[in-house]
Every structure is written in structure tokens, then in C-alpha cells.
């Protein structure tokens, strides 16, 4: 499938075949900047998921018996295709999910970085040689694939996150059934075509397009051994709850955050403003790691506020395909409504609004883009109180609170940690003791110093604590979720000797 929208209805990729069997219902992918229909897709049903799981289950034995390096070869083909088609795919990402073009391209770059990590890792050691108390014994920790992995991915990183999940799962010897986000099926289609082009054996990789009902059918099925999920806390917790009740099944879920940046009295305010603007407004605030709370020391509060507000007033919202754009549109009309509700909630809870560009001025909306889902920065200040919903609930938009604090870094940490989430965050300070205090005590999976809290590299573990996640569905940590460990102990001696001083003598009644 190329850049042109087509009349064709695109199907699922199951057992090495494209299929439009099953339900007649379809859905469309739209450009969030124009409202234009990009392509039409078949909506997956229980029977499509069933066929995909059957194919994945059947393909597993043969796939697992290949060497790591042979499995990785298929991924190397995809790595090259992602690189060769960087510009084209970056534009498709931007058209389908509205991220500005540097972000569209970075999504594709992040995808090939993950493929490179996973395929390169095929040649690295995959276990440990473990010493034994008994000289005649060799002990090892080995890994084997779990089986069928169900992958459910979000729209905001429509190329990168599928590869966070699938590159690792496949190289480790699992087969995959994947449901892309319903907002970005075009990216899903292209990724499936890449697996087909790479000649991956039938049934090893399967894709079913559709909505949450298709996703739930995947996660609920007993043939699925591991679920990898990245998306909303609501869905993630439902999956974690259900899967937790099924012995032998695992779920690694990465959900949202109510991420904060602490700006202390020792901050360099150039760095603080830059980091806060990037973290709050890049991707129109629609990253799990975007910041929605700026916790600022009273000594630098007024100056930081003036400077941050000044940039938030002017930051360029517009056509995401234009290089000069900083923020593209929100993903869909319902999401704009959700952002509106969060902005209103803050006001109801006593916020002092500093910037309200929720309704953009007519002249800010690019020509021919009237049907886009436009929304600009919303910045407010509010006195900290533990129970404020606006400081606890994730908006997933360009909606950010300034909270003033007085006292030492412990006070900042107390406010910072007072949310149910714990994904990403940052501290801006020139004082290494403050930085170290944040590093050690901020309740987070991803902590940054003098940087934005977005933009993690793929070789780092990615995931959160508290409500933000229960596992790390990316890179090294995904290996834990898609493999079983075996402690393999082998005796090289001629007799049996036990550890821990345990007697190996067998005594009998007539001894
Ligand atoms: C997400 O926030 O949904 O760290 C994923 C980052 C990206 C991934 C973000 N590498 O900002």
C-alpha cells in the first residue's frame, strides 16, 4: 500500500494470507489534520481472531526450532525496509496520527532501532552460567519462548511500539497475533506487508485489524501465553486483572502517566523552559510520557511562569506535514472533547488559567484543514492539594498545571509522588544532591535530569510503577515477558552429590 488512498477494502493478515473473510463491517482511517479518509479496513471479529490464533499456535513448534540467528534474519530484512522507506513512512505516520513530520520520521527511526536491538541481540548470550556448590555439576539459566504472544498497540507510536513488542517476541521464538490501534490501521497494513515481503513463515506473524472487541478476544483466549499491551490505564488494568487470574498466562502492560517536572531554585531556567515545553506540547501532549504537572520552586516561579507562558502562547500549531509546525492536531474529535473536559475540570477545581488556546483562532487553522481536530495549549496554575482531580487524572493532551512549592527538594518530591501514576518525570537543577534525591526517590520508571521527560531510547527499560504499569513491554524487559527461564543443572560426575549438605545416601531397613 502506498501513499495514495484507495477504494480497496484492506483485510487481515492471517496464516500467511490476506483475508477479508468474516464480518462485512468496515472502518476507515482518517487524517486527523484534514478529516480526509485515507483507506478502508475490515473490522476484525471473533472468528478472525480465532483463525489468527490457530495459525499462530500451529506455526509455533517449527518457528521455535529455528536458531535465534535464523529467526533474526527475517527482522533484518524489515530493518532495511524501514530505513529505505524512512521519508515515505514518516509521512504516512504523520498523515495517519497527526504528529508533526519530525515526530513521524522519529517513530520510524525508533522502530528500526528496536528491530536492530532485537535482531542484534540474537547473537548475544541468552542466559547465565551459574556456579554450583558441587564440583561435578554445571548449572545454567536458559530461556525458551512462551508460545503465542498477543500484542495490542496504541495509535500514538503506530510503527515504533508494534516493533517494541513484536521484534523481541519473534526473535525469542514466539509467534504473534497483533491488533493495531483502530486509529492507525494504515500503518498496521504496511507493517504486515513488510512481514510478508520478508517471507516470514506462514502463521508466525498475524495481524487482525479492528477495535477493542477484537483486542479483548485476543487477550481472553487461552491459546495466548503472553499479552503485551501499551495503551490506556483503563484497558491495561482490565487486561492485567483478567490475565492475573489465569495461571501460566502473563501480561506486560505499559499505561499512561500524570508526569511531572520539578524545577528547583537551582534550575537553569533556559533548560527548564525548553524541557517543559518539549515535554508538555510535543506530540500535542499525546505521549504516555508527556508532562501535565510543572512543580516549580517559589524563588524562580514568577520568572519561569512568564517565560513558559510566553512560549505556550506562541508555540506553532498547524499542518503536521510542514517543518515549521511544533504541534499537529489531536487524534480524533472524541479526544478533543476529552481534553475540553479536563480543561473545564481544572477551572472547576479553582485553576487560574494562564493560556487558553483550546479553541484556536481561525487564522491559526491551516487552509483546507477546517475538518482537523485542532487544539492548542492550555496552561493553568493551581495551589497544590492532594485530592485535586486535575492533578491526578491523565488528560493526554496539551494541558499542563503550574504548581508552586516552597521548601527543599523533599517537598517537591512529596508533591511529585502524589499521583496514582509513575511513568516518567524530570528534575531541572544545577545541584547534584537535588538531582540524586530525585533519581532515588521519585516514583517513576523513567527519570531524567536537565532534560525533557520524553524521548527514551529503545535500549532502556520502558515502563512505569504504580498505575502506570506492571511490566516492561519493550527491549530487555520484554524478554522476561515472552520467555520462560529454565534453571538447567547437569551432573558430570558418576555419582549423585547434593548441595546444601543434603545426604545422597539411601539407607534401607536392613542396613
Ligand atoms: C509513549 O509515550 O506512548 O520516550 C511512548 C518516548 C518515546 C516513546 C513514547 N520513545 O517519548
Would you write up a description of this structure?
This protein has a seven-stranded mixed sheet, sandwiched between helices. The N and C termini lie far apart (80 Å). It is 37% helix and 20% strand. The mean pLDDT is 95. By secondary structure, it is of the alpha/beta class. The chain is built from 14 helices and 20 strands. Helix 4 (101-121) runs parallel beside helix 5 (160-171), helix 5 (160-171) crosses helix 14 (475-482) and helix 9 crosses helix 10. Strand 18, helix 13 and strand 19 form a beta-alpha-beta unit. The chain folds into two domains: 9-256 and 468-488, Aldehyde Dehydrogenase, Chain A, domain 1 (3-Layer(aba) Sandwich), CATH 3.40.605.10; 259-449, Aldehyde Dehydrogenase, Chain A, domain 2, CATH 3.40.309. Bound molecules: 2-aminohexanedioic acid. 2-aminohexanedioic acid (UN1) binds next to loops. 2-aminohexanedioic acid binds next to loops.
